[in-house]
Amino acid sequence: MKQLELLYEGKTKQVFLTDDPDKIILHYKDTATAFNNIKKATIENKGLLNNAISAIAFETLQNAGVATHYIEKFDERNQLCRRVEIIPLEVIVRNRIAGSMAHQLDVEEGMKPANTIYDICYKNDELGDPLMNDHHAVALGLATYEELSEIYRMSARINEVLTELFLRIDVELVDFKIEFGKTSNGTIVLADEISPDTCRLWDVESGKKLDHDRFRRDLGHVREAYEEIRARLEKITTK
After folding, report:
1. What is the pTM of this model?
2. Which residues in the chain land under pLDDT 50?
3. Which of 68, 106, 136, 163 has the highest CB neighbour count under 10 A?
4. pLDDT at residue 76 in the model
5. What is the distance between the alpha carbons of residues 94 and 116, in angstroms, rounded to a whole number?
6. 223 and 230 in contact (C-beta within 8 Å)?
7. What stretches of the chain show up as alpha helix (H) in DSSP?
8. Which pLDDT value is given to residue 230?
């Protein structure tokens, strides 16, 4: 597979075209960002770690029947993926109340609700990725009600699979954000990445944060936390 020109560059990844029009190469950078790109840093080998973690997560999801854009881990920093048209929505799945939701609603962080909470946000950096509801998304032409129904169905299944995966390594999946895209034939698939950048991951016994909050909240040892997640996952998936 031949890498061609840069198609898109985001905060933490680059997307390159290939000599196959239906495939792209996703390159993971070492950049860390928070607060809509206000806080930035470079963390050594973060891209390498996220690539490895995300590959394991995508392979686990695909084995469980979830359709994704992932094809294979190309090398230590790159993945070969299907080219998709990204649906401009972020889905946030919350198993516990943490982060912005705890702050906005004045709820103690870590509270476990009786239900799983699903939020959607409009992917728009200029607007700060605002929270919206289904009717807003349909009114703006971002998705249809039928597409949203499929996205929620897939999100619930993704939550089941990832929760089980992380519990196997004694980590609780507190919440996570995901993106979806459409393939050339219109099929909705999971896209982007699954990593400590996009998931809140708490050690089951100690409650230690092993995710992006270590950077966001100046807790230190960011790389070490990501390394721990990768090591635990590789221990159960390489046997």
Report:
1. 0.96
2. none
3. 68
4. 95
5. 6
6. no
7. 46-63, 99-105, 134-139, 145-167, 213-216, 222-237
8. 98
CB 147 within 8 A of CB 155: no
CA–CA separation, 206 and 210 (whole Å): 11
Cα 115 to Cα 98: distance, rounded to the nearest angstrom: 14
Which has the closest alpha carbon to 181: 73, 34, 24, 2? 24
| pLDDT confidence of residue 35 | 81
- 194-217 residue pLDDT tens: 999 999 999 999 999 999 999 999
Residue type, 96: R
What's the rounded Cα separation, in Å, for the pair 191 and 113?
A: 27
Q: Cα–Cα–Cα angle for 61, 162, 170, nearest 5°?
A: 135
pLDDT at 37 (0 to 100): 75
pLDDT, position 239: 57
Q: How many residues does the chain have?
A: 239
Q: Are 112 and 95 in contact (CB under 8 A)?
A: yes
Query: Quick one: 238 exposed, middle or buried, by C-beta within 10 A (0-12, 13-18, 19+)?
Result: exposed
CA 35 – CA 48 distance, rounded (Å): 23
Strands 31-34 and 85-94: what pairing? Answer: unpaired
Count the neighbouring beta carbons within 10 Å of the beta carbon of residue 126. 6
CB neighbour list of residue 94: distance below 8 Å, 6 or more residues apart: 101, 113, 116, 117, 118, 119, 174, 175
Can you tell me whether residue 164 is helix, strand or coil? Answer: helix
